[in-house]
Amino acid sequence: MTDDPVVDATDAVPDGPGPTPAEDAGRHAHALLRVDSVSKVYGSGHTEVTAVADATMSVDQGEFVALLGPSGSGKTTLISIIGGLLQASSGSVHLGDVDVTSQSARELTRFRAERVGFVFQSANLVPFLTARENLLYVTSLIKGSSRSEAKARADQLLEELGLADRAGNLPEQLSGGERQRVAIGRALMNDPDLVLVDEPTAALDTALGRQVVEMLRREIKSRGKTGIMVTHDLRMVEYTDRVFEILDGELTHVEEPSALSH
Ligand SMILES: Nc1ncnc2c1ncn2[C@@H]1O[C@H](COP(=O)(O)OP(=O)(O)OP(=O)(O)O)[C@@H](O)[C@H]1O
Ligand SMILES: [Mg+2]
């Protein structure tokens, strides 16, 4: 389609009247996540890998769930599809009334910018920006947010994350745990409905890992978000409401998480 060029995040948000605040509130009030029979096949022929096989799950607003599984089981693939970063081979993902899997590239860019917060395994902060600037950078991608509102929000998040006195530090001047917390702050900056976190504690010791996950839970609960945390650390599962296990791309809901710790 020649009239639908590839666009980057800075010019992807169309102008014009969006939903009114009331419509917006209504839409966001039903931010239930539904994943229906999602499969993802990489490659073709004899190099074909089924990374996710017929995954079905749903997560409520205000719910924080764990996605547990060994290396290579399909965790990153599944949350990337859920967050609109990767196309499914089949199946569908809905967030409220938005069909994520049928959006155009342009719509997906907007969807991710406005409604999804990602925290990747490596905190992936911009190295030459301070903690505060790493948060503000997100809002520079969204039209219509005022600079002063964004600053106030960044400072509030940094405060909540115990980073008020580190706001001016560059990533290299922060500890691993502090960097993870900045990454969480950045993921919450756009006030997303959906928070997707890939292995937030892999690089942290147990005490710091617990601190980071506890804080994540607090943010998800107090702000009424839908959260999925990828982990293979059983000790982090206790901070979540429910556990899904994935093995060779097949997803199962764990009925009794207490059974996992034995
Ligand atoms: N772009 C790709 N092309 C081909 N195969 C891929 C690609 N990305 C992932 N895979 C394969 O798909 C499977 C699932 O990968 P995925 O990254 O989702 O696993 P994971 O559960 O996140 O693992 P880890 O815990 O090591 O991060 C693996 O067998 C992997 O080798
Ligand atoms: Mg992964």
What does this molecule look like?
This protein has 262 residues and is an alpha/beta fold. It has a domain at 30-128 and 190-256: P-loop containing nucleotide triphosphate hydrolases (Rossmann fold, 3-Layer(aba) Sandwich), CATH 3.40.50. The protein has 7 helices and 10 strands. The strands form 2 sheets. A 6-stranded mixed β-sheet has the order 6-7-8-3-9-10, with helices on both faces. A 4-stranded antiparallel β-sheet has the order 2-1-4-5, with helices on one face. A hairpin with a 2-residue loop joins strand 4 (90-95) and strand 5 (98-99). Helix 4 crosses helix 5 (147-160), helix 4 packs parallel to helix 6 and helix 6 (176-188) packs parallel to helix 7. The chain is globular, with a radius of gyration of 18 Å. Magnesium ion binds at residues 75-76, 198.
Relative strand content? 15-25%
Largest sheet entry = 6 strands, mixed
Q: Output mean pLDDT.
A: 84
What would CATH call the architecture of the domain at 30-128 and 190-256?
Answer: 3-Layer(aba) Sandwich
How many strands?
10
Topology at a glance:
Layout: H1 21-28, E1 33-42, E2 49-59, E3 64-68, H2 75-82, E4 90-95, E5 98-99, H3 105-115, E6 116-119, H4 131-139, H5 147-160, H6 176-188, E7 194-198, H7 206-222, E8 226-231, E9 242-247, E10 250-254
Parallel strand pairs: 3-8, 3-9, 6-7, 7-8
Antiparallel strand pairs: 1-2, 1-4, 4-5, 9-10
Helix pairs in contact: 4-5, 4-6, 6-7
The structure holds adenosine-5'-triphosphate (ATP) and magnesium ion.
